[in-house]
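For the sake of transparency, this paper describes our internal protein records without simplification. An entry from our holdings is shown next, in its original layout:
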Amino acid sequence: MANFHVPPYAPPAAMFNTVSGYAGTVAGGGAMAAPPAASFHTPLYAPPAAMFNIVPGYEGTVAGGGGAYIPPPPPSVPMPVPEQAPSTPDWHIPSISEDRAREAFATYVSSKCCYSSDPVSEGVITNMESFNTYRYRLETFIEFRSTEWSQEPYTGQPLDAGVQPAPGPWQIAAQPPAFFQEHKQTIKVPYTSSVKNCDLCQGKGRNPCTKCAGSGKRDCTLCNGSGYRESDKRCVNCSGSGRKNCSPCSGRGSCQCDTCRGKGKLLIFINLNVKWSIEKDEFVAQDSSRLKVEKLEEVSGKELYKDAQYMVYPVRGFPDASVAQASERLVRDHQGKYAQTSRILQQRQTIELIPVTKVNYMWKGKPYVYYVYGNEFKVKAVDYPDQCCCSVM
């Protein structure tokens, strides 16, 4: 039998009031307190534009999302004066010792079932080169707000719509987590709650039973509705009527409405959804070691520089020009992108030095190379010379 998907219930536009500052808020979510990002879905229900009044300061807000947003207010305090970063010394890290390099190499080889340990024990290290590889990371901690119409069965909750103007999405106090800790919070917007008849059951609290089509009766399962079993014997299960009371509705022909839970009325209100998230970008400076950048993503390094404040400034005076350029580009991109769509609460930038040592060694008269990198002393061997084909019997 084919499977069919039943879409969620979306109440009609007439159920909702127009609330000052929340024009464009729709059932099922979608009206954003900031321009919608790619990760947000298209709302299932879009009320007609005629529902909404033009509210000063909210011009351009439309129904069903798609541009219906209220940008965050400007910062209440002026940005601090940029400070010149202190000059950075030469952060050159000397090559690790031969014993440490050989130990890391041995650990790596032992993890490979097809690698012989002979190159480790017999190989002769001829040269070791160290490389400075920098990783720059910028993190921006933001607060994003969106609104959606919500509903719940009405059981006598207080109604406050129209008592006074509802506060704007960015005027409502929310308790943020500690910096750089992601979190979500949902807040019921004051002065938006009203009561409406449930549209799905027309305010009756019950809907026709789908199992018996509202009749309250179903064919007897033992006699298949004939009233008889085994030729002339009357079915005892249905007393020969061929029909039985429908179990799901207890013979009433209707079931409690799932939307209003039998109350017949719904409390309609606006929910403010607040999301705190971390937006992160990284840059790894290229070096001449020829070790692939993807490998460096697996390891940690030595933290050389850390700066955290409301809005950071590009790193100045760093010895590697590519890191300074990446800092300037990413800081500009983050502040230009996220300041327009959300509220920036804090930024943090760090620079790590990832130690990379290139080890040249000889085995059986031929030269080979392996790399030891990161604080974890991970190893990448290039063309390991003594491999075999393994098979599991």
Summary: The first helix runs from residue 98 to 110. The CA atoms of residues 113 and 392 lie 11 Å apart. Residues 1-9, 34-68 have pLDDT under 50 and may be disordered. Residues 1-143+274-393 form one domain.
